[in-house]
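HUMAN: Please help interpret these tokens:
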Amino acid sequence: MGELTVDRVLVGGAWTRPTGPEIRVLSPSTEEPALRVVDAGPEDIDRAVAAARKAFEQSPWRAMTPRQRADVLLPVADELGRRWAGEIAPAFTQVCGTPTTVAHAFSGGAFGIFADLARTVADFEAEKAVYGVGGRSGIGHPAQLVYEPVGVVAAIAPWNGQLYLTLTKLLPALVAGCTVVAKPSPETAIEATILAEALQAAGIPDGVVNILPGGREAGQRLVSHPDVDLVAFTGSTAAGKAIMASVSSRLARLSLELGGKSAGIVLDDVDTATVAGQLLSGTALMTGQACALLSRILVPRTRQDEIAEAFSAAIGSVPFGDPIDPATMMGPLVNKAGMQHALDLIESGKAEGATLVRGGGRPNGYDRGWYVEPTVFKDVENTMRIAREEVFGPVYAIVAYDTEEQAIAIANDSPFGLAGAVFSTDDARADRVVRSVRAGVMSINGFGLDPGIPFGGYKQSGIGREGGVEGLRMFTEIKAIHRPAAHPLTNGPALAASAH
């Protein structure tokens, strides 16, 4: 495809050239130039926030019903679908190293968000309840709850979800009646530009959506802007903490989807070959570059060796290599820094005494590109770095336990609480363990995520939820409207009459 270029941003309904410096992105598979992005500068961010504020106060968007807003947004899916195979997926592969088959498959998740809008809107509108005399508690007076848009939203998404992680913020914020300044990662600037074009074609009012792909400085300017009412962010826990500190002085609202160190708990009644295959759905995706994936695998100590060998063989059977090859399912990491971080953690595992079962470095025959072998350790203690830190790469730590209670304790012994899974042939037992793990998303005998189901974590994995009606309500404020005049005890003439 040659080096791609993005040198425009959508602000206030107009396309303009941003004022920041150029960002050059290299291909993860060849290390050759893949994308040139002109970064959003401070002036661009300020103009975008001003446009969003003006649109929130003056455009018809806020006065529309949620269903009317959803009707405007639904045609965007058709435009994205028309351009996915020819433009969106190839750019994701070229710039981020995502295997082409995986890049095409991401369309399912993106379109699932649009498909879920109708049900979500219906649930959201139904919950605007009017309480009768006596309210919920039986005392007081009639009241009504109204969910109002929170205001101007800063939506910041990383590279690894393609359009999906931008849409999980953008669509519910818009349906709620907010206006948005979106700052996708520069690596996904092509996809973000196509999304902006699709939104314009759908007829969304000027300034309601402003899209500016950019780097860290643009993001810092955006989250610290005093006219941003809510920051919706997906990224690292360290970045989430910095954002939280930045907005604390003005008490801006937050939705933070952060890091994870998810545990897959294998109980002692499983079939080894079956569980090895089931684990792949939660480990191989995006070459391990997803926050919710199972990077800790907890197994009965008496079966550690057999399960380690079976999982090692399973992960080794996943086609690995050039992301352009349609057969490839695991490819390079997104950049050199990501590769180096994964290699550092692999070396720490060796140094701390874990046993290397598979991999352990850069694969033979890949002198160019940021490739790391799928790597499996066993005999991992939960205190080791490879069991504590998010790798964001294909490095898996097998931790042995002696009792079910110990497995639960190990799973919960983490600063993170994003996701996890339990594998067992006993449904009741699996359900009991799932409910004991402190994580926001749990699966049984597999690994499942759904755009219509709330997603988010406990502890340092974030604040709030994305997906479903719960995710939509993140972008609202609740207003309670009391009607005391309708209650006999608060009616002036009635009180006066009763006094005589």
